[in-house]
């Protein structure tokens, strides 16, 4: 399974530098919840021309990992 999110790691210090959503994501029934686990000090970036579609009754949660 390929996740639509990349996590870049600095190999010297082993710290996450950024999270990138680089694939279109659609949240729809029956899968009503999506999670992105991210470091609280790092943003979650959505690449240009990428669409996040979240249907009524669905939720995308960006949470600390």
Can you tell me about this structure?
By secondary structure, this protein is mainly beta. It has one domain. The protein has no helices and seven strands. It has strands at 5-10, 15-21, 25-27, 33-38, 44-46, 52-54, 59-64. Strands 1-2-5 form a three-stranded mixed β-sheet, with no helix packed on it. The chain has a two-stranded parallel sheet with strand order 3-6. It has a two-stranded parallel ribbon with strand order 4-7. The relative contact order is 0.30.
Total of DSSP H or I helical runs spanning 4+ residues: 0
Strand order of the largest sheet: 1-2-5
Distance between the termini: 20 Å
Cα shape: flat
Essential attributes:
single chain, 65 residues, mainly beta, three-stranded mixed beta sheet, two-stranded parallel sheet, 0% helix
Quick description:
The chain has strands at residues 5-10, 15-21, 25-27, 33-38, 44-46, 52-54, 59-64. The chain is an all-beta fold.
Summarize the topology.
Elements lengths: L4 E6 L4 E7 L3 E3 L5 E6 L5 E3 L5 E3 L4 E6 L1
Parallel strand pairs: 2-5, 3-6, 4-7
Antiparallel strand pairs: 1-2
């Amino acid at each position: 399974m390929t996740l639509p999110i990349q996590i870049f790691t600095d190999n010297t210090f082993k710290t996450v530098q950024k999270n990138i959503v680089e694939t279109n994501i659609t949240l729809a029934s029956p899968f009503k919840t999506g999670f992105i686990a991210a470091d609280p000090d790092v943003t979650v970036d959505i690449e240009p021309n990428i669409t996040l579609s979240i249907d009524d009754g669905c939720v995308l949660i960006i949470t600390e990992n």
